[in-house]
Amino acid sequence: MQPILTIDNVGKTYSNGFTALKPVSLAIRKGEIFALLGPNGAGKTTLISIICGLTSASSGSVHVAGHDIETAYRQARSIIGLVPQELTADAFETVWATVSFTRGLFGKKRNDAYVEKVLKDLTLWDKRDSKIMTLSGGMKRRVLIAKALAHEPDLLFLDEPTAGVDVELRRDMWRVVQDLRNSGVTIFLTTHYIEEAQEMADRVGVIRKGELILVEEKAALMEKLGRKELTVHLQTAIDAVPPQLAEFGLLLADDGASLTYTYKTGHERTGITALLRALDDAGLRLRDLETRQSTLEDIFIDLVRTQA
């Protein structure tokens, strides 16, 4: 199947010589949720701006459903919905008016039933006659999503969609995004909340200092780079790790009452059996065992530090 979005060696260097984005090549599959993670200033918004035709690239090309974003801008842009990071909307317009007007900007015929459905899906129907200026930050964010969906796009960009949104509204938005994907919309998401990527994404990309350093299926990434920690709680505290346990790289807690062993989740042999045997041989008696699985956030932090 042809990708809905193809990015080929796209880079951005400004006239002062600053390179905001090193050449990026990436293909986004139709119907997937792709999450792009990166620190502030990593190049996430620059890449989205280029894809959506808001900023010109210094090199490379972008094709949306086969349409070049520069030479066939109108065709490409009609397929794209964009929810920007900034809360920008006409403060004196009503919710209904601003969403309906946005639909018209893309040349779509009036369709009150569709606009009503979008507003209901986003829990905005009761606010349809309210002016934007009277809404909370979370509701304004929902209006931006409604505007992005007004012209029925096949590809939706969400640039930090839940920034400044409380936990309850964030969870609601996750549900909306999943519903959109289930309806066939492709989602390209940037976020600081890594749990969002872990919750929703099919694939994950990591960008740092303008360079795309990794693209991986989320499940494969968690298996390949994930790790588990086994914490052994001891019956009696110790002052130091016995020399015969040095090979396991154990971390002794400050109170001396527990030892932590870290191992890769994808490895066939974990070394746990050998560790437990070695603990017994060293005369250490166990009170309890506890395991912890690494999160996508742990993996992200490790990747960014490794590439520093």
Automatic annotation (TrEMBL):
- Alphabetically list the UniProt keywords: ATP-binding, Nucleotide-binding, Transport
UniProt cross-references to SMART domains, sorted A to Z: AAA
Fetch the CDD domains from UniProt.
Answer: ABC_DR_subfamily_A
Fetch the Gene3D superfamilies from UniProt: P-loop containing nucleotide triphosphate hydrolases
What is this protein identified as? Answer: ABC transporter ATP-binding protein
**InterPro entries in alphabetical order:** AAA+_ATPase, ABC_transporter-like_ATP-bd, ABC_transporter-like_CS, ABC_transporter_ATP-binding, P-loop_NTPase
Q: Does the keyword ATP-binding apply?
A: yes
Q: Residues in domain ABC transporter?
A: 5-234
Annotated TM spans: none
Q: Identify a single GO molecular function assigned to this protein.
A: ATP hydrolysis activity
| Protein family according to the UniProt entry | Belongs to the ABC transporter superfamily.
The domain of life for this entry's organism is: Bacteria
* One Pfam family named in its UniProt record: ABC_tran
